[in-house]
């Protein structure tokens, strides 16, 4: 199957999942995650009509951006992995979206750099919904406090929340993670609505997109089921 065929198949899964829970399919977007994959595969997805691509490592995203942006009108990059403060300046230069905000220090550095660049960045706050210590994201019970301290300029356009659910064969355990995020969203809407309407929920990956859609996702992030298994880090195209 080609990248275009895979995109069609994944989009059908999303649409079907929406119909199953009486949601409008246009309320759930598909973010293709091109991490570790070569520009030629991004090109295929671009030709199929996709414009925004998820990448988890800043240097990899930057390498593709530098190679592709000039002759691909509208091509945009979403950083979906954690960011060290010293990489914020790069993100401020080329990314459209950052989905893994869980540090005030990074927020303020991004804000400062964006103001210098005269750019805006859409931002999602990452929530650690599974409680696994190795996972990024703020703890659900810290969300209100974190959001209140997010005193940044309009350079950071805070849109909502992102999570990576438990990787488990038990659909109930996965669904619980998504419900935690919806609970956080409710609280933020009541208590910190001056920062954002918190409308965007980036939830769901190749293995759990149907559960995520049933539990309120507005965007699924799909790598494997579009581009195939992750490339061995030693064999990534530009390294
Ligand atoms: C890699 C990645 C994805 C895509 O995962 P697949 O299981 O390959 O679909 C989604 N979200 C984040 C944060 C990722 O790092």
Automatic annotation (TrEMBL):
Superkingdom, natural source: Bacteria
Q: Which residues carry this modification: N6-(pyridoxal phosphate)lysine?
A: 35
Gene3D superfamilies for this protein: Alanine racemase
Q: Does the keyword Transmembrane helix apply?
A: no
Report the residue ranges that make up the Alanine racemase N-terminal domain in this protein.
6-230
Keyword field: Pyridoxal phosphate
InterPro entries, alphabetized: Ala_racemase_N, PLP-binding_barrel, PyrdxlP_homeostasis
UniProt KW Magnesium keyword:
no
Which CDD domains does the record match to this protein?
A: PLPDE_III_YBL036c_like
Recorded family membership: Belongs to the pyridoxal phosphate-binding protein YggS/PROSC family.
Task: Give the function comment from the record.
Answer: Pyridoxal 5'-phosphate (PLP)-binding protein, which is involved in PLP homeostasis.
Protein name per Swiss-Prot or TrEMBL: Pyridoxal phosphate homeostasis protein
């Amino acid at each position: 199957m080609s990248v275009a065929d895979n995109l069609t198949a994944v989009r059908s899964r999303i649409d079907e999942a929406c119909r199953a829970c009486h949601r409008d399919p246009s309320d759930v977007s598909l973010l293709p995650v091109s991490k570790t994959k070569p520009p030629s595969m991004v090109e295929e997805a671009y030709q199929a009509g996709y414009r925004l691509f998820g990448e988890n490592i800043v240097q990899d995203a930057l390498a593709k951006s530098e190679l592709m942006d000039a002759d691909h009108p509208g091509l945009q990059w979403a950083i979906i992995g954690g960011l060290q403060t010293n990489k914020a300046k790069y993100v401020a230069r080329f990314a459209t979206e950052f989905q893994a905000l869980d540090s005030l220090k990074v927020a303020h550095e991004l804000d400062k750099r964006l103001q210098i660049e005269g750019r805006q960045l859409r931002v999602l706050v990452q929530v650690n919904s599974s409680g696994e210590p190795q996972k990024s994201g703020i703890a659900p019970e810290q969300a209100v406090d974190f959001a209140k301290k997010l005193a940044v300029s309009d350079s950071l356009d805070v849109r909502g929340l992102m999570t990576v659910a438990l990787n488990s064969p038990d659909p109930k355990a996965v669904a619980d993670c998504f419900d935690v995020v919806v609970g956080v969203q409710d609280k933020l809407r009541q208590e910190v609505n001056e920062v954002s309407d918190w409308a965007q929920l980036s939830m769901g990956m190749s293995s759990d997109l149907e559960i995520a859609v049933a539990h309120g996702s507005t965007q699924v992030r799909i790598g494997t089921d579009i581009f195939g298994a992750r490339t061995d880090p030693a064999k990534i195209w530009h390294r």
